[in-house]
Amino acid sequence: MNDRPDAAALAGAIEDDSTRTILVATQEEAVPVSELADVCGVSEPTVYRRLESLRERGLVEERTRLDEDGHHRGVYRATVERVAFDLAADGVDAEVTRRTSMADRFTDLVGEM
Q1: Average per-residue pLDDT in the chain?
Q2: In what order do the strands lie in the sheet with 91-98?
Q3: How far apart are CA 64 and CA 71, in angstroms?
Q4: CA–CA separation, 9 vs 93, rounded Å?
Q5: Which of 30, 45, 68, 69 could form a Cys-Cys staple with 75, CB 3.0–4.6 A?
């Protein structure tokens, strides 16, 4: 699934190294804030602020993971596969290619039958 968000807002959301590191770190699996803070080399409150900005733009999602000791903890996963910026005659365009879940792919498959 592709969509075309406001290029300036998207560029602003991913302008710092920590935010881009969060997106890369959460591509393959959902990651807790404590691990993201370690990977980024910043505090957990900073990670939470970056995650909130990414969530507002639909670039990450929060999930709940049950630990072996029964506690719940939030983990985050990127919802995008690709973010691209293109120079055009009338300015800069942005395109976001979102990941599709297995359930969405199944629904699409059944809908095509």
Answers
A1: 85
A2: 2-3, 91-98, 80-88
A3: 10
A4: 11
A5: 30
Q: What is the pLDDT of residues 85-94, one digit of tens each?
A: 888 888 888 8
Q: Per DSSP, what are the bridge partners of residue 98?
A: 80
**Per-residue confidence band for 21, with pLDDT thresholds at 50, 70 and 90:** very high
In the chain, what's the furthest Cα-to-Cα distance? Answer: 57
* Helix 33-40 and helix 44-56, axial crossing angle in degrees, nearest 10: 110
If you average pLDDT over residues 48-56, what whole number do you get? 94
Residue pair 51/59 in contact (Cβ under 8 Å)? The answer is no
Of the candidates 11, 42, 19, 30, the one whose C-alpha atom is nearest the C-alpha of residue 78 is 30
Contacts of 50 (CB under 8 A, 6+ apart): 16, 18, 19, 22
The separation between the first and the last C-alpha atoms of the chain, rounded to the nearest angstrom, is 19
3-state class (DSSP) for residue 16: coil
For 99, counting Cβ atoms within 10 Å of its Cβ (0-12 exposed, 13-18 middle, 19+ buried), the class is: middle
CATH annotation of 2-112: 1.10.10.10
